[in-house]
Design a protein that fits this description.
mainly alpha; elongated; 3 domains; two-stranded antiparallel sheet; Fumarase C, Chain B, domain 1
């Protein structure tokens, strides 16, 4: 297949120049953009009605054949845009050569990429909703299961499993918000910017923007074709999403170990060892954790491509799609595994409760009890610390031992250090958290 620009280059240079192995996935968006462009050219009288109708029929035929598999993409083409246009011309003749009037590949590619990214964001937000739903259901089922909360991976204060899981879901809700915000900013149409300085033809940019579901055209023609800040913004949101999934995966790895025993991961999401028959390895969680570095690399690669590029278009920007697509694909794959893994995991409340009963996680409540009886907090803190250092669980101390530490103690201290009472007094808003997640899940 020939190049649209008509020149010839060396074989190695052709391989370097070709992007169809990456951008071929945008065939639907390329045809969608071309249909809108052709309709606008016809309405404006730039194309004849006959040529406009021929182009429309030809593009719709290519679209149908690609969807059915009757037409295969020629991977020797320079890019997907070349393939579509040359296939169109081969099918309808001279009219196909008129499609590119008042358009450059610069604004065409930028439009295709925005269309594709917009659709991928919508799909990703849908996957995030599935993950939030899985977490919500598990949190609701174990809303009152007492477990230790941690700081520095040391047992700190008592919480519930439902409250803990809601923290995961809140991270994902914000990730969905960041992606949705990025979608709003990228939803402007580059078509009509042409190579960099617009066109002399009397085009209607508002028409093509509306036809493609954009909020309007990109105002500045140089900006329209030369920036990929929307790719950076999406990859940044994906990097945070990957970080959050990695943190969840890390805790699943810890919790499913014999040392914790808080959960059992479902069959189908663990693997065995080639040498140790007893092993059930949390490989899927570990891979989600490991994929984070890949998404970070995509973000840094995209930032590096854009660094120092003079306006307007430069061929360096062809590298945008590989980084963006890899980040989108990786995040989607990880989400598609995370959701059913969480939905299928079996929590062990007894093990959580046992862990919460050790480690003096009611020590703060002991100090707070003294504060409630008029003791300054720093003094109360020192008294509680001395009791902890004695090594005996606070709930097992006698009243004499308490009073030996401080005369303000009385029988009420036992209710204060009771684990269930400690959790209840904190009034963890699990019901409100679950309600907020339900509102998010109902949003369109």
């Amino acid at each position: 297949m020939n190049n649209l620009w008509g020149g010839a280059i060396a074989d190695a240079a052709r391989e370097l120049n070709s992007s169809i192995a990456v951008d071929s996935r945008m065939w639907r968006e390329d045809i969608q953009g071309s249909l809108a462009h052709a309709a606008m050219l016809t309405k404006q009288g730039i194309l004849s009605e006959a040529d406009g109708a021929a182009i429309k029929a030809g593009l719709e035929g290519i679209l149908a054949d690609l969807e059915s598999g009757a037409l295969a993409i020629d991977m020797t083409a320079e890019d997907i845009h070349t393939f579509v246009e040359m296939t169109l011309t081969a099918r309808i003749g001279e009219a196909g050569k008129r499609l590119h009037t008042a358009r450059s590949r610069n604004d065409q590619v930028a439009t295709d990429l925005r269309l594709y990214t917009r659709g991928q964001i919508d799909a990703l937000v849908g996957l995030i909703r599935e993950a939030v739903a899985a977490i919500h259901d598990k949190a609701a089922a174990y809303a009152d299961a007492v477990m230790p909360g941690y700081t520095h991976l040391q047992r700190a204060q008592p919480v519930t499993f439902g409250h803990y899981l809601c923290a995961w879901a809140m991270m994902l809700v914000r990730d969905a918000g960041r992606l949705s915000d990025a979608r709003k900013r990228l939803n402007q149409c580059p078509l009509g910017a042409c190579a960099l300085a617009g066109t002399t033809f009397p085009i209607d940019r508002d028409m093509t923007a509306a036809a493609l579901g954009f909020d309007g055209p990109v105002l500045n023609s140089l900006d329209a074709v030369s920036d990929r800040d929307f790719c950076v913004e999406v990859l940044s949101a994906l990097a945070l999403l990957a970080a959050h999934m990695s943190r969840m995966a890390e805790e699943l790895v810890l919790w499913s170990s014999l040392e914790f025993g808080f959960v059992t991961l479902p069959e189908g999401f663990v693997t065995g060892s080639s040498i140790m028959p007893q092993k059930k390895n949390p490989d899927m969680a570990e891979l989600i954790r490991g994929k984070t570095g890949r998404v970070y690399g995509d973000l840094m690669g995209m930032l590096t491509v854009l660094k120092g590029l003079p306006l307007a278009y430069n061929k360096d920007m062809q590298e945008d799609k590989q980084a963006l697509f890899d980040g989108l694909d990786t995040a989607a794959l990880c989400l598609s595994v995370l959701s059913p893994m969480i939905a299928g995991m079996e929590p062990h409340p007894d093990a959580m409760r046992k862990a919460a009963g050790a480690g003096f996680i009611n020590a703060t409540d002991c100090a707070d009890y003294l504060v409630g009886r008029g003791v300054p907090f720093r003094e109360a803190y020192a008294v509680a610390a001395k009791l902890v250092h004695g090594g005996k669980p606070l709930e097992d101390l006698s009243l004499e031992e308490y009073r030996a530490a401080h005369p303000a103690f009385d029988e009420g201290v036992y209710a204060a250090v009771d684990l269930d009472a400690c959790v209840k007094r904190r009034n963890l808003p699990v019901d409100e958290e679950l309600a907020a997640l339900e509102t998010f899940l109902k949003e369109q």
